[in-house]
Predict the structure.
Amino acid sequence: MAVEEEGLRVFQSVKIKIGEAKNIPPYPGPNKMRDCYCTVNLDQEEVFRTKIVEKSLCPFYGEDFYCEIPRSFRHLSFYIFDRDVFRRDSSIGKVAVKKEDLQKYHGKDTWFPLQPVSADSEVQGKVHLELRLSEVITDSGVINHKLATRVLECQGLPIVNGQCDPYAAVSLLGPSRSEAKKTKVKRKNNNPQFEEVFYFEVTRPLSHTKRHFDVEEEDVDKLALRVDLWNASNLKFGDEFLGGVRVPLKVLGQAGVHDAWYFLLPRENGGKSVKVEELGSLRLNIVYTEDHVFPSEHYTPLRDLLLHSANVEQPVSASTAHILGEVCREKQEAAIPLVRLFLHYGKIVPFISAIAHAEVNRTQDPNTIFRGNSLTSKCIDETMKLAGMHYLQVTLKPIVDEICTDHKPCEIDPVKLKESENLDTNRENLRQYVDRIFNVITTSGVRCPTVMCDIFFSLRESAATRFQVDQDVRYTAVSSFIFLRFFAPAILSPNLFQLRPHHPDPATSRTLTLISKTIQTLGSLAKSKSANFKESYMAAFYDYFNEQKYADAVKNFLDLISTSGKWDQKSIETPIMLKEGSVKVTIKRVDGKGSKHRTKGRFMIKRAQGRNRFGMKNFKKRWFRLTNHEFTYHKTKGEGALCSIPIENILAVERLEEESFKMKNMFQVIQPERALYIQANNCVEARDWIDILTKVSQCNRKRLSTYHPSAYLNGHWLCCKLSADTAPGCTPCTGGLPANIQLDVDGDRETERIYSLFSTYMNKLIKMQEACGSKSVYDGPEQEEYSSFVIDDPQETYKTLKLIVSAVQTLEQQHTKYKRDKFKKTKIGSQEHPIGDKSFQCYIRQQSESSTYSI
C-alpha cells in the first residue's frame, strides 16, 4: 500500500533473515533448556512468527520473511518467547530497531543484544496537546499566571490484555508538585477523543503590590507538564501505564501558546534492572527499502530506454538493461526490477531471448551452457519465481507437505545412521519419495506457464543452433533451469518458495536435501551421472534407478515445456491448498448489550453482509482455506466446509473501512449475492489474504469495476448512504484486470528502483564510458582496468550510456528538489511528525542531503 505525498507515492518493504539466538538464559529449573520462537512486530503488532525450536539455549531459525509494510511505524521489533510444558508463552527479551536506524544495518548480518521486555517499555501511540499561559486578575487585584492544558486526542494506543480503556492523568512538575488531574475514561477505544481542559497555577507574585512583569521568570523554566496515559483496569493489580510525555513550559515562549503532537514515551527508569548480557543475543539480516515514486511521466525517458532493450538493432550488450547488469555488483540486483518491468509490459520473452542468444554465442563448451550467475541466468530465475509460483505449488506442495508431516527416516549415509534405523528401509523410503516427486514433475508439463515455455523454446533454439554437433544441448539448456534452478531449490528449501510456512526441522531438511540432489542429477542428462556425486553412498543410491527410463521421461518432459503453446489449465488442475487461516488472531463478537468479548485462537473471523449491527451470531471464528478452485471456511481445522465459494464467484476482494464495525484489518470477499466480511489478525496478514484472493480470481470475466468500501448495515450502505443492498459500488476496485501472468507489478516503482541502482553505480557508468572510448581508440588488447565490462560495440554502447546518464541526472534533480521542499515543509510537532523522537530531526536532515531516496 502506497502513502500519497503531494503526487508522490511512498512504498515501504522489509526483507528479514532471522538467523539464530545464542546464550539465552537457562530455564529456572532442573531442565535448563527452553522451547523458543521469535516474532517480528511492527511496533507491537505481530506480523510473523517462526517455528518453535525445542530444547535449546542457542536456537537456530534460518527463516526468511518479506512483506510490504502497509502503514507507518516507529520500531521494527523482534521478540524471543519461551513456551513451557503448559503451552504458556513468556517473553525472554526483545530487539527494537527504530525506523530511522534501519539503514545502519542494511543487508548486514548483525548480532543484536536482547533487551528486557516490560510494560513500561512497550509504548506506542501519540497524544495531541494544547498549552496556553494566561494572566488572571483576582478580586483583590493580584495578577496570577494560569496554565490551561487541553488534552485533545490520542492515536494508536496499545491494546493491553485485549482491551484499551484509556484516560489521561495531567500534572504540573516543579518545586511544589500538583495533584494529577484526570480525564474521563474512554471505553474500548485506542484512538480516544478527550477534548478536556485543566488549569494550573504556574507562578506566584512576590508581593501583592508587584505587577506580573516582576514575577521571577526563571520559575517557568523550572516547570514542566506531565501527561500520562493509563489503561483503566478492573484487575486488582491496578491501572496499566500506556505511555507519557513531559513538556517543559519553556516551549511556550513569548507567545505563551504551544500546540503540538507528541509521541508517547516509556517512564524513566521504568524497565527492570536486568543486565543486557544475561538475556543473550539474536542474529538478524534486515533489508528495509523505501521507494519514493513520482508520477509516471517522470520516468518516460528511462523507461523507454529500458523497454527498447528487448528489440535493439545493435548488439544487446549495448542496451540499457544489459548495461545495468554490467554495472551492478550482483546480477540479481538488476534482474529483479528488470524482470518485473518487462513482465509488466509484456516484453520479457524477447528481452531474455536476446540476452540468452548473446550469452550462448559467447559460450565455447556446451557442457558449461548457462552454468554461471550471469544476467541471463538471474533473469530467468526471477521469471520462474514470479510466473511459476502457482505451477510450483500445484506440482510439489502435496508431496512436500507429506514428507514434512510423516517424518519417515531417509538417511542413507552409514556414518549418520541412527542405531534404531535400518539402512535398507531408509533407502527404500528415499527411493519412493524420489520416484513420486520425479513422476509429478515429469507429468506436469501441461501446467507449465506459457511465458516459461516460450523462454525455454528460445533457449533450446539458440543452443541447438550454436552447438549443432551436440544432440543433447537442446535438452541441457532447458534442464539447467527447470531442474537445477527451479524444482531442486524448491525441494531443498520449501519455505523460500511458499511451499511451507517455516524452515523444516533438521531431519526433514536432510531428507529434502537427499531428494533434491537426486532429482537434480536425474534431470541433468549428464553423461556420467554417478561421477556427479562426491559421496559414495549417493553414487550407490543412484544405481537403484534405470538410467535410460528416467532419461527418456526427462526428455519427453523437456520437449513438452520447450514448445511454445498454451493449454486450458483449469481442465487439468487438481485442487491445491494455497493458503489457510492458520494464524493467531483476536476474535471479536458483539452481543445484544453492546459489550465485546475477546477470544484467542488460530482463526480469522467472518460476518455476512446485511445483518444488524448487534447480535451474538454476527461474528464467529472460522478456519479459512483457499485452493485454486474454491475459498471455504470451516468451524475448526479438519472439519467439513460450512461454506464454499467457487473462485469464479469471487467478483472482487477489497479492504473494508474500519468505521464499519470499529475493527481493524478487515476485508471483504464480494460475491454475486452478498459480501463476506473477514478480519485478519494483523495488517500484513490482511494484505496477504487480499493479494492471493485477488490473484486467483483475476481471470474471472465477471469481476466488478466498483465496490462499496463500507458495510451495508441498518438498511443502507455506510459509504454512499444508498438504501438498496444491490446498489452498484461507489468506489473503483483496486484489484486490477485479468492478465496472462497474474502478477501485481507497478511499472513506475520498478523504474524508480532501476534509477536508484544506476544512481548508486554512477561511477561505474562513467568508467564504462571511458572503457568504450579506450576500446574505440586502441584497437588492440583490452586494457585490464576495463576488462570486466562486456562491450561488443563501443560506439553504440557509449551512445546508450550517454542517454542513461542524462535520464538519471534528470531524475536525480527531481528527487533533490522534492527532498529539499519536504525538509522545508516538515514541521516537528505536527500529526505526521510528533515531538518525542530525538533522532527524527537528524533523520529528516540526512534524507534531505542524501542523493537518493531508496535505502
User: Anything to note?
Assistant: The CA atoms of residues 260 and 829 lie 5 Å apart. The domain at 388-572 is CATH 1.10.506.10 (GTPase Activation - p120GAP; domain 1). The chain has five domains: 3-113+275-288, 126-263, 388-572, 577-729, 747-849.
